[in-house]
């Protein structure tokens, strides 16, 4: 399907968009335990539950809590005296909703888009062909990322107009290109990439490379990347 045409399709289910309007449909019976899991409540339906009817994932203490779906991604979540709630705590946001209203989360998404909030399109943890990064802290002129580079992977040869970067290796070893120099940076070592310096990062090892990147500058957006060479075809 053409990507541009697909992007213009309204966000409604195939039931409403196609099946209710066609006279050419054919159906056959299927007994496969099907559930399209179209809401948090339907996810609760199919999940394993404790004796109080709760589906709990993550670090959770649930006191006098019943018939709820609770997911804690990166910190402790505690509840007291609740029932029939959806509580989803991720790195990006916290959702609290009554189970009967869980499908209305789409209204929140519409509000995020209308307000042009970055949460509508950007996650704190972002996956790339070479691995991933997690934006763990930021200010007006600084940002801190935890970067994981897969074994054998390499970031593009690139440059930034508005930010400098300080790389600290916490696990594994990095092969760093900075200007005309290429060198290794090992655990508990660091290097500094000044603004405007052409650079690249590679993991030549057999275990994931984990780094802390501290960015500083007048503009820290992801579009401040000038790529000169990229093994994943993103130039």
UniProtKB/TrEMBL annotation:
Reactions this protein catalyses: alpha-D-mannose 1-phosphate + GTP + H(+) = GDP-alpha-D-mannose + diphosphate
EC number: 2.7.7.13
Gene3D superfamilies to which the protein is assigned, alphabetical: Jelly Rolls, Spore Coat Polysaccharide Biosynthesis Protein SpsA, Chain A
Transmembrane region(s): none
Signal peptide range in chain numbering: none
Enzyme superclass (EC): transferase
Presence of keyword S-adenosyl-L-methionine: no
Any Pfam family hit: ManC_GMP_beta-helix
Keywords, comma-separated and alphabetical: GTP-binding, Isomerase, Nucleotide-binding, Nucleotidyltransferase, Transferase
MF terms (GO), sorted A to Z: GTP binding; isomerase activity; mannose-1-phosphate guanylyltransferase (GTP) activity
Domain MannoseP isomerase/GMP-like beta-helix, chain residue ranges per copy: 59-112
Domain (Mannose-6-phosphate isomerase type II C-terminal): residue spans on this chain: 117-230
Any single GO BP term: GDP-mannose biosynthetic process
PANTHER family with a match to the protein in the record: MANNOSE-1-PHOSPHATE GUANYLYLTRANSFERASE
The name this protein goes by in its record: mannose-1-phosphate guanylyltransferase
């Amino acid at each position: 399907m053409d990507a541009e045409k697909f992007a213009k399709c309204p966000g409604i289910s195939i039931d409403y968009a196609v099946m209710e309007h066609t006279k050419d449909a054919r159906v056959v019976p299927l007994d496969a335990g099907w559930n399209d899991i179209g809401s948090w409540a339907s996810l609760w339906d199919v999940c394993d539950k404790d004796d109080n009817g709760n589906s709990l994932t993550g670090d959770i203490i649930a006191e006098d809590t019943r018939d709820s779906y609770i997911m804690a991604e990166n910190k402790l979540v505690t509840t007291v005296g609740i029932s029939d709630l959806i509580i989803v705590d991720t790195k990006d946001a916290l959702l609290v909703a009554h189970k009967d209203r869980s499908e209305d989360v789409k209204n929140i998404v519409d509000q995020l888009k209308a307000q042009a909030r970055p949460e509508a399109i950007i996650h704190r943890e972002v996956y790339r062909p070479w691995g991933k990064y997690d934006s763990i802290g930021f200010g007006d002129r600084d940002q801190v990322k935890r970067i994981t580079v897969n074994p054998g992977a390499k970031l593009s040869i690139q440059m930034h107009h508005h930010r400098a970067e300080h790389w600290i290796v916490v696990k594994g070893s990095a092969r760093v290109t900075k200007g005309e120099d290429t060198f290794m940076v090992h655990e508990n070592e660091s290097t500094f990439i000044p603004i405007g310096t052409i650079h690249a990062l590679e993991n030549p090892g057999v275990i994931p490379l984990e780094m802390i990147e501290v960015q500083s500058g007048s503009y820290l957006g992801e579009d401040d990347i000038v790529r000169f060479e990229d093994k994943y075809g993103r130039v």
